[in-house]
Amino acid sequence: MEEVKLHGFWPSPFSYRVIWALKLKGVKYDYIEEDFPNKSKLLLQYNPVHKKIPVLVHRGKPVAESLIILEYIEETWPENPLLPKDAYERAMARFWIKYGDEKGGPTFYSFFLSVGEEQEKAIKETMEVLKVLEEKGLGDKKFVGGDTIGLVDITFGWLPRWFECMEEVVGVKLLQPTTFPRLHAWMENFKEVPVIKENLPDHEKLLAHFKRIRESSVADTMK
């Protein structure tokens, strides 16, 4: 019997990426909730370089960084594939995963944490990224890879719950059905996938978490 453990943190979308992938693959695992900032000795042992979650431990061997973990899961448990079989389509999927990691995430967090002129700039950049995702990444498909959920969808899976909370805290709604109808429809489709629907953080709890983060960030800028 394979031993699989996941070290995560409840508000982290990176932890949920791994949870969703394991659930979609039907892989049984034990979840260990980390208490930040009091990182466990096991976490520091398993991820001594970055000292961050998530960390997947399979047969006693740790794998760190969510995108690397997703690739590991896909290769280790090939059943219910989350990447296309075609080499070109796999390459395109990895392109959008990389785009989301390098461009999407930092841009959205800038929107969430900035104020004043910096926030106006961040709003413009966020709208540009959303436009690229809708027109170039998603197109007219139900999910990025077609009719079924895949690794690209999982990578952008923080938009439906996490980004919604960010918008609510900031008081600016960017991703609306009137502005990005296809991307908004994708969000609704994504949330209705049973594995996703059953494994999302509580909205009010996450909202309170983000409010604390933004209040702290804004207070620091005022010093």
Automatic annotation (TrEMBL):
Q: Which residues form the GST C-terminal domain?
A: 86-213
For biological process, the GO terms are: glutathione metabolic process
Query: Which Gene3D superfamilies does the entry link to?
Result: 1.20.1050.10, Glutaredoxin
- Known catalysed reaction(s)? RX + glutathione = an S-substituted glutathione + a halide anion + H(+)
Q: List the keywords (alphabetical).
A: Cytoplasm, Transferase
Annotated GO molecular function terms are:
glutathione transferase activity
Q: Which purpose does this protein serve, as stated in its record?
A: Is involved in the conjugation of reduced glutathione to a wide number of exogenous and endogenous hydrophobic electrophiles.
Q: What name has this protein been given in UniProt?
A: Glutathione S-transferase
Which organism does this sequence originate in?
Davidia involucrata
